[in-house]
Amino acid sequence: MATQDQTQNRPSTQPQSTLNLNSIMIGSAQAQVLADFYAKVFGRPADMNDGGYWGWKVGNTYLTVGKHSEIQGQAKEPARVMLNFETNAVREEFARLKQLGVKVVKEPYDMEGGWIATLADPDGNFLQLMSPFEM
């Protein structure tokens, strides 16, 4: 019987999807605060600013923040969806973000030869810094 690792690494016989994840939007009651926060995280202003929505091209994906009428207060389950930002400099980026006042959830730790650190944005959404890994 194949182990889970062997099963996950086996080439799929299923047809591949034509879907491409091109953006993630974070809705907020305080969109301007989140826009200012992510501008600090990325070290640059938004690539797009239109009608209360701000967006950054990050790798091959856009991260957008904007006001959403059905969102109030802090994230109720901040670990449900996490933004993972890949970097070869997890500890250095963590120190930079901590210096900027980003809320620390978990200090950098080694996980099977890679580094991970967890932080939170002003709405309480979790973001992680992660060492690159092969999939």
Explain the overall architecture.
The protein is an alpha/beta fold. It has 2 domains: 21-70, Signal recognition particle alu RNA binding heterodimer, srp9/1; 74-135, 2,3-Dihydroxybiphenyl 1,2-Dioxygenase, domain 1 (Roll). The chain contains 3 helices and 8 strands; from the N terminus they run H-E-H-E-E-E-E-H-E-E-E. It has helices at residues 4-9, 31-42, 90-99, and strands spanning 23-28, 48-50, 53-58, 61-67, 83-86, 103-111, 114-120, 126-130. Strands 1-4-3-2 form a 4-stranded mixed beta sheet, with helices on one face. A 4-stranded mixed beta sheet has the order 5-8-7-6, covered by helices on one side. A hairpin with a 5-residue loop joins strand 7 (114-120) and strand 8 (126-130). The radius of gyration is 17 Å and the shape is globular. The two termini are 22 Å apart.
Write the topology of this structure.
Layout: H1 4-9, E1 23-28, H2 31-42, E2 48-50, E3 53-58, E4 61-67, E5 83-86, H3 90-99, E6 103-111, E7 114-120, E8 126-130
What is this structure, in a nutshell?
By secondary structure, the chain is of the alpha/beta class.
Outline the low-pLDDT stretches.
Answer: 1-7
Shape: globular
Question: Main beta sheet: strand number and arrangement?
Answer: 4 strands, mixed
| Overall strand count | 8
CA-based gyration radius: 17 Å
The CATH architecture category of the largest domain equals: Roll
What order do the helices and strands follow? HEHEEEEHEEE
Order of strands, main sheet, comes to 1-4-3-2
CATH names the topology of the largest domain as 2,3-Dihydroxybiphenyl 1,2-Dioxygenase, domain 1
Name given to the CATH homologous superfamily of the largest domain = 2,3-Dihydroxybiphenyl 1,2-Dioxygenase, domain 1
- Level-1 CATH class name of the largest domain: Alpha Beta
Strand content: 25-35%
Total tally of structural domains: 2
Helical segment count? 3
